[in-house]
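Please, structure for the following, as tokens.
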Amino acid sequence: MARILRIDHIGLAVQDAEAARFWEALGLPRSGSETVPAEGVTVDFFPVGPSRIELLEPLGGEGPVQKFLTNRGEGIHHICFEVDDIRGLLAQLGAAGVELTSPEPRAGAEGSLVAFIHPRAAHGVLIELRQGGPSPAEGPRHDAG
């Protein structure tokens, strides 16, 4: 049976990179930045113990984060869980009738595989499932910023 290992990160939708100043003022060092064209965002990474904060800045006028900002404004976009077997967990969720945004994982930041549970299935919270990529202590694999 596939398992959730930990909270990987909390994704925050922000209008622009200036939002990073707040997190840096709290004493959180930015460990890197990466552009994820498939999601239409630039992501800034801020490790917090075994998890991290990820700031999601839209690249342009389209994409899920831009839509979120237009409809809801800045704030918590999603919670991400690291999993040990993303395909196995998606199969478990599908068999249980849990609504997914897609039945197959896709490429995410830092060479990971990601998939999302629809907010309707999770009481209004977008849940990301993530397998692979470095741990927050390692930082991102490369800095695309």
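The mean pLDDT is 90. The chain is about 15% helix and 35% strand.
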